[in-house]
Amino acid sequence: MKNNRTHWLIHVIFIFCSAAAILPVLLVVAISFSSEDSINKYGYSLLPHEFSTYAYQYIFNDPHVLLRAYGNTIFATVVGTLTCMIITSALAYPLSRKSMPFRKFFTMFVVLTILFNGGLVPWYIVMKNYLHFSDNIWALVVPGLLLNGFNVLIMRTFFLNTIPGELLEAANMDGAGEFRIFAQIVIPLSKPVYATIGLFATLAYWNDWYNSMIFQVNHDNYSMQYVLQSILLNIQYLAQNTKSNNMSASLASLPQETSRMAMAIVAIGPIIFAYPFFQKYFIKGLTIGAVKG
Hints:
Blueprint: H1 2-32, H2 36-42, H3 54-59, H4 63-96, H5 103-115, H6 120-130, H7 149-162, H8 165-173, H9 178-189, H10 191-206, H11 210-215, H12 224-245, H13 249-252, H14 256-268, H15 274-291
Helix pairs in contact: 1-14, 4-7, 4-10, 4-12, 5-7, 7-10, 7-15, 10-15, 12-14
Subcellular location: Cell membrane
Family: Belongs to the binding-protein-dependent transport system permease family.
Pfam family, one: BPD_transp_1
């Protein structure tokens, strides 16, 4: 009887936690499908007082630009995430092998990159003048490939504490080389940590707008987040000048709040599909890689 009450209490707590997470999303959806006048008059509500798709019509006024930005972001996210996981594991795996010379020195070097970096100006000069990653699609991918020391340490600790050393030694004694051991033994046993690092990299690439602002000149190479931000800034600029200069009523009714929420829905739509893929391994990989060390 006591266990049943405990289970019911746990269920009720998780129901409230789920509602607390879902209700804000439903509120954002409702506001995005409301008219700007109803938001100004009635405020926010879970059900639109006046249903309107004007915010989405305004955002997709030139669909070619937004769809192109979507394609750029998807390309950068997929290519960047896969490449980032390969590079991160290529460094983390040797650091996890106790037989590697100067292993502690290189590990400390990785830790120092978390505390210090080269600075914005040297980074920009290297990327633009030496690597020539400017005003092309690769400018959305390459800057994010700079190793994240935190991800390296998570993956290194996972390899060190989860992959049995005896298994690797047995494979080595059977004649398997390091590359074969890594490809056929370590990677299949490391799905949780790969899912964890993959999720971190996916979110970083998907939400990136800074590289577009710094490196891109051609509109065809903009990322989705930067395009949405530009639309929002244009709306705010027009709205402020409309109020100060008493311009036409059509400009005065620009969808400021509703477009902001509509952009949130447009931005989170595709990335939601990534979570079911990573969810199975995410918590396990994060906790194993972070608790021990």
